[in-house]
Specification:
Order of helices and strands: EEEEHEHEEH
Strand content: 25-35%
Distance between the termini: 20 Å
Structural class: alpha+beta
Number of strands: 7
Radius of gyration: 15 Å
Helix content: 25-40%
Number of helices: 3
């Protein structure tokens, strides 16, 4: 994700990234997201990045399910995915991770495909 603040003259900068991995099936993607810059966390950037990649993956890659594996102690990430309509699928004590999933039915029901583009210039 790249952000620019034209009013302050701040340069464009990468604040984090989001990735899809195709492991088990061509229509299921494991997703991970990171907003590395602390000052951009909890500002809605992660949710917007998530909506953008879900929109792309559903419409262009025919993905029907997303999976997010999160370390059991990472409450902030678990809350992020819950807030974005991912449902608890499983908890592994062996691997110390929790798996959340989002299905195409949930995507349509929650209208997650309606995406804003907050980084587009207004020129």
């Amino acid at each position: 994700a790249v952000v620019s603040t034209q009013s302050t003259g701040e340069l464009l900068r990468m604040i984090g990234d989001i990735n899809l991995f195709f492991i088990f099936s061509p229509d299921v993607a494991e997703i991970n997201i990171m907003v590395a810059e602390l000052k951009y966390r909890r500002g809605g950037y992660g949710s917007e990045m998530l909506k953008l990649i879900i929109n792309y993956a559903v419409n262009y890659l025919n993905i029907s399910k997303f999976s997010a594996k999160i370390a059991n102690q990472n409450n902030a990430s678990m809350n992020f995915f819950k807030k974005n309509n991912f449902l608890l699928e499983s908890v592994s004590d062996v691997f110390q991770e929790t798996n959340f999933e989002l299905s195409a039915k949930t995507i349509i029901k929650c209208n997650l495909q309606e995406v804003k583009y907050p980084f587009a210039s207004e020129d």
